[in-house]
Specification:
binds the ligand Cc1nc(C(=O)O)sc1CCOP(=O)(O)O; alpha/beta; binds ligand LCLJCK34; globular; 210 residues
């Protein structure tokens, strides 16, 4: 991971959007609010559309100076020249992903509510570990809950940036940051906001010291 990639702030994660123009327009608005990272996640698009969308986001993110992370799909990340990949339980071996990506790309893993997954991720060379769901998520209602306490525990033990996801809103995000989250990963509260740029900027302000 390069020095210029700060893993602290809003981690904006795209919604399941199959209208390419709408996805790009929404992402451009969110990028105007300067998130730390943008993750391309789309569970509805087929492979060809995922390539098109990821390539479009690649250009947008490059212009905005915001790293693009691809969810689930190392091959797609390599194909479009993304800045990194995020892997869950069924998305491949993080150590193999690190070897394929090299040291200059960002690698993150979902740890759910399981500190042992975070330890394994650290051993595999990940750049951040993610825990969730912090709150019930209407985007992913099946996500089981994770306690806030894991955030501080993982940070203290592993010395890695910690991401928090699931049901985070502007109203509850400060408590998650106070519990130790370096990255606040959000889909609905940012992308479905009346003004996504302003909402993203409001999250950014949570990380600015007074
Ligand atoms: C930052 C971040 N954390 C967690 C997830 C969830 O990843 P995963 O467990 O692979 O689930 P899906 O996103 O594939 O539904 C994430 N995407 N990003
Ligand atoms: C993709 C995802 N993973 C989760 C987990 O807990 O692992 S919760 C989630 C959905 C996050 O969307 P929203 O910000 O709209 O709640």
């Amino acid at each position: 991971m390069s020095e210029s990639m700060a893993l602290r702030g809003l981690y904006a994660v795209t919604p399941d959007e199959t209208d390419d123009e709408r996805l790009v327009a929404l992402a451009a608005q969110v990028l105007a609010g300067r998130p730390a990272l943008l993750q391309y996640r789309n569970k509805l698009a087929a492979a060809a559309q995922r390539r098109t969308q990821a390539a479009a986001l690649r250009e947008l993110c490059r212009a905005a100076g915001v790293p693009l992370i691809i969810n689930d799909d190392l091959a797609l990340a390599l194909e479009v020249g993304a800045d990194g990949v995020h892997l869950g339980r069924d998305d491949g071996d993080p150590a193999a992903a690190r070897r394929a990506l090299g040291s200059g790309c960002i690698l993150g893993v979902t740890c759910y509510a399981d500190l042992s997954r975070a330890r394994a991720g650290a051993a595999a060379g990940v750049d951040y570990v993610a825990f969730g769901a912090m709150f019930p998520s209407s985007t992913k209602p099946s996500a089981p809950p994770a306690p806030f306490s894991l955030l501080g525990q993982a940070k203290a033990e592993l010395g890695l940036p910690v991401a928090a996801i699931g049901g985070i809103t502007l109203g509850n995000a400060a408590a998650v940051v106070a519990a130790g989250a370096d990255l606040i990963a959000v889909i609905g509260d940012v992308f479905a906001a009346p003004d996504p740029a302003a909402r993203a900027a409001a999250y950014r302000a949570l990380f600015v010291s007074p």
